[in-house]
């Protein structure tokens, strides 16, 4: 039997487990937005931090929040491709898009946007490498293979699989577990781009 992909494994998790995984992945992407903000002065990292904190609170103690208002604030902080010509813009957009998907999934109790967070995280790594380190490779197949084999790409998949495995072995999502996963993301201190 073929081994299930990371995305297939995520689909099979309970909704609350998917939410914790998506929040964990968003936590890892925030540093990319912070760096973009530091270099350009655009946006407000406090909005992303506040929105993600609201999600963690929802996951931990089922605390409600005005998700529509958070989405509006997040939209104001999301960079526009036409306004910036720096490589860091795309990871910043990915961080905003992932957080928006996370909030949508939590609000709608829908696993599809939560799965999208994992896809966005992997995609942002690939896009970062494609535009940066491998921009000089003209052959699309060779570039795709180089990206897939790059340590950042393999690390991102390994991190996602490790957290999926951890959550598969966890029957109940409670306040302590949410706190533990949040601490794991912060203690790693490294974004999905190795920053």
TrEMBL record:
Pfam families: DUF416. It comes from the Bacteria. InterPro entries: DUF416, YP001051499.1-like_dom_sf. Gene3D superfamilies: YP_001051499.1 domain like. This is DUF416 domain-containing protein.
């Amino acid at each position: 039997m073929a081994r299930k992909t990371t995305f297939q494994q995520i689909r099979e998790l309970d909704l609350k487990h998917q939410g914790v995984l998506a929040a964990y992945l968003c936590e890892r992407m925030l540093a990319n937005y912070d760096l973009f903000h530091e270099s350009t002065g655009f946006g407000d990292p406090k909005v992303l931090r506040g929105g993600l904190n609201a999600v963690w609170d929802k996951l931990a103690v089922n605390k409600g929040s005005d998700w529509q208002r958070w989405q509006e604030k997040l939209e104001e902080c999301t960079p526009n491709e036409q306004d910036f010509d720096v490589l860091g813009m795309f990871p910043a957009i990915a961080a905003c898009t992932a957080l928006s998907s996370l909030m949508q999934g939590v609000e709608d109790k829908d696993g599809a946007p939560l799965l999208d967070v994992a896809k966005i995280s992997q995609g942002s790594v690939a896009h970062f490498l494609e535009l940066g380190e491998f921009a000089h490779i003209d052959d699309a197949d060779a570039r795709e293979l180089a990206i897939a084999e790059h340590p950042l790409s393999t690390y991102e998949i390994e991190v996602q699989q490790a957290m999926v495995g951890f959550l598969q072995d966890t029957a109940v999502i409670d306040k302590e577990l949410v706190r533990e996963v949040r601490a794991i993301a912060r203690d790693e201190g490294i974004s999905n781009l190795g920053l």
